[in-house]
From TrEMBL:
Protein's organism: Cuscuta epithymum
InterPro entries: BETA-OHASE-like, Fatty_acid_hydroxylase
Name the UniProt record assigns to this protein: beta-carotene 3-hydroxylase
Main location per the UniProt record: plastid
Membrane topology reported for the UniProt record: Multi-pass membrane protein
Compartments reported by the entry: Plastid, Chloroplast membrane
Family of the protein in this entry: Belongs to the sterol desaturase family.
Amino acid sequence: MAAGAASAACFRASFNRHLSFISSNPSCSASSPTLLLPSSRRRFQSSSIRSSRRKPVLTVCFVLKDEKVDSEFEIRAQEIGRVIEKQISASRLEEKLERKKLERLTYLVAAVMSSFGVTSLAVLAVYYRFAWLVEGGNIPYIEMFGTFALSVGAAIGMEFWARWAHKALWHASLWHMHESHHKPREGAFELNDVFAIINAVPAIALLFYGFFNKGIVPGLCFGAGLGITVFGMAYMFVHDGLVHKRFSVGPIANVPYFRKVASAHQLHHTDKFNGVPYGLFLGPKELEEVGGLKELEIEINRRIKLSSKG
């Protein structure tokens, strides 16, 4: 084995010397060393030269193949990402709808309970007060007329009070509370709901005083408290239910004038006419005064289309 290794080393050394001798001779051509080699050695050398020349081409093809695989992988990953994003968006939308449904139900329960309670107390108060007045057989017509007249007058007067307070107070010094009504609501209630409680306090006080006392003044106070209560109930159904859809109002939404009122108040939230209208039930009249009837008709038609789709 040592002899074989030695002979191979000697052959390699002599072959290298032979090549160096030939290459140092300027009269020899570049192909002459190849001619001196055996045919098998020439074939091996030529194939190795050709393979070495083809290596860059093979390498480039291999890199292109890798880039194609990477691009396909990236496209597939993007498609999967879009599918996952759509699923997440659908899940979030479903959760949002469920949350809104629960919020509407919560507010509806609170509105129904308060409305039923206030209405029941008002009806009972009217019945027992007038029954108490006619107990002795003497019917106090003046007092009864005053109660009825002031109840109607208070209900109408509350519209003008609400318009003034809305502009001079709620959009001014009390904006930090009313602002919650002009932003997307988070939860079943908003800070602006406090104004409903504030307006209920004088109504309850007037009803209480008028119920437990006789005379013209108590009768007028009772009528005023009754009118404020009636306006508050109507305001809640039209403003909270019809306009802002915090609960369903049923056939009230199809009443033409109520639809007009709702459209006018919707323009108040767009701030197209510097907040006008500030009132509710006379809102269309306010828009007419500032030249907003065209926009009002557009909003009415938009609400009609939405209701027909729903």
